[in-house]
Design brief:
Strands 1, 2, 3, 4, 5, 6, 11 and 12 form an eight-stranded mixed β-sheet that branches. A two-stranded antiparallel ribbon has the order 7-8. Strands 9-10 form a two-stranded antiparallel sheet. Helices cover 12% and strands 30% of the residues. The chain has two helices and twelve strands. The longest helix is centred in the last third of the chain and has 19 residues. β7 and β8 form a beta hairpin. It has one domain. By secondary structure, it is of the alpha+beta class.
């Protein structure tokens, strides 16, 4: 059954971005070249929030393949509602990848500097160490993004994350994928649901 996103309780303004609007980046699975990602299930477009690719960590001796989430709503991930996530209990990466117990989730949004949080990712079951489930990774990212959004509301900080003059909430955002950015870091690609 195809993923169908329910209507969200808001409408993003159709006006042109203002100076305070959050920058967007092009996106494509192989490179950053197209301007939007069409969401064929809902008719909405997904605009990708621009980030600097984090590359300051050590080069890794192991490689975690990109984890694709196909525009999974971050609000659902935070609530642990995984009905619309493909293979939620599947491993996020192959068992053969020898990743450490703790990895950092890293965000590098323009104007906000680097934000990161170290988290326990591996599972321990019957004497075996296993990679996290896809649902666990989605929940970890959603929790981190939620905390980031709360922090940006502090007047002493860079200001709230905005799109087309509207302050963003977790209801506006989706998880596109997660990349292995450096030896101890994962960097999620976050998108905005644009129904304009």
């Amino acid at each position: 059954m195809p993923e169908v996103l329910p209507n969200l309780p808001f409408t993003l303004a159709a006006s042109a971005p203002t100076a305070e609007a959050y920058p967007l980046v092009s996106y494509s699975s192989s490179s950053a070249q197209s301007s939007t990602i069409p969401d064929t299930n809902s008719g909405w477009r997904i605009e990708v929030l621009e980030q600097t690719i984090y590359d300051r960590g050590l080069a890794s001796e192991y490689h975690i393949p990109d984890i694709m989430f196909h525009d999974f709503r971050l609000r659902d991930a935070l609530k642990k509602d995984f009905r619309f996530l493909a293979d939620p209990e599947g491993a996020a990466w192959p068992e053969s990848v020898q990743a450490p117990q703790k990895l950092a989730i890293v965000l590098c949004f323009d104007g906000y500097g680097k934000h990161s949080r170290q988290v326990n990712v591996l599972r321990h079951m019957q004497g075996h160490t296993l990679p996290p489930t896809r649902s666990k990774v989605a929940h970890i990212v959603a929790s981190f993004i939620d905390a980031f959004l709360i922090e940006t509301r502090d007047p002493a900080k860079a200001g709230p994350l905005s799109y087309r003059g509207r302050q963003l909430t977790l209801d506006d955002l989706v998880l596109i994928d997660v990349h292995h950015a450096s030896q101890g870091s994962l960097q999620p690609t976050i998108g905005i649901i644009d129904r304009a």
